[in-house]
């Protein structure tokens, strides 16, 4: 799965650009503020219908313009187009038709993003790590999305009942269903983490040969007690608080070195490499299980990494056989690898240069 053609119109400082990326390693280089990150952001926007830099999607529309349009061709066949107006109207077309769900886009364009802010995956609370697990399970398990969505809806309904101080018996009826979907969801997440671990170990071994990193799944409640029992035991407290304290919405991926959380032990460079290992493992697993390739977007790859680690990371990305877009200020920073295609960005204009 790779983008063979990309057009960007009125997106950030890019007025109009047309790129023909290579199926392997692509380098996007240029001065600060030239528009490098915006190219990655445009690809992300096509795959997810939102930005990774701003919660407000209209921020990405070029100043003084009414709308942005993006288009890409994936492989030989699939065409994806997206238009978004300042009023927030979004039109998405996949091969000329409107997709039923934005999730269809994510299936066509499985994107992996690595930015200098990606540390957040390890430093912040469990939400980002839960999303990481769910991304993997979503792409590997066709029933996952439905189960995830049902479980989420049931949780919302349960929380509404708790806040409304509903009758215990009424809540108990909902809890049967909530427990059922919680177990389904948890089993699928656990299965995915288990298969991830098989791949991850080797990659972490290359990136952090001296640290024994252990990765484990935490399901969101005491694993020795059935969720039905937990919900019953905690009902009065949940009612007081107005939300459900334990459940699959509290699941997490725990990463430890010598039983200490990684964020307390590893350097920033090491944390960045660990995040890269997690994302590469996710892609490797996807291609092993489903012969589907992720597309890697790596913003400012050089930051925090010495020359040896930059080389290692680029080699590992190349080995995945995936399409990779890397940004850098100066191509000299990343001259240790041969780039299939190079793009120079200058004040929002993009030119292909010889590589
Ligand atoms: N909505 C917008 N319209 C026009 N220009 C914008 C918009 N949002 C940001 N910019 C400008 O786009 C430029 C490119 O930003 P960015 O892609 O982050 O550059 P780089 O990654 O190359 O440093 C910045 O100079 C920024 O001020
Ligand atoms: Mg940038």
Automatic annotation (TrEMBL):
InterPro entries: DNA-binding_RecF, DNA-binding_RecF_CS, P-loop_NTPase, RecF/RecN/SMC_N, RecF_2. One of its GO terms (cellular component) is cytoplasm. One of its GO terms (molecular function) is single-stranded DNA binding. It comes from the Bacteria. Keywords: ATP-binding, Cytoplasm, DNA damage, DNA repair, DNA replication, DNA-binding, Nucleotide-binding, SOS response. The keyword Amino-acid biosynthesis does not apply. Pfam families: SMC_N. Residues 3-346 form the RecF/RecN/SMC N-terminal domain. It is found in: Cytoplasm. One of its GO terms (biological process) is SOS response. The keyword Nucleotide-binding applies. ATP binds at residues 30-37. Belongs to the RecF family. The RecF protein is involved in DNA metabolism; it is required for DNA replication and normal SOS inducibility. RecF binds preferentially to single-stranded, linear DNA. It also seems to bind ATP. This is DNA replication and repair protein RecF. It comes from Ferrimonas aestuarii. The gene is recF.
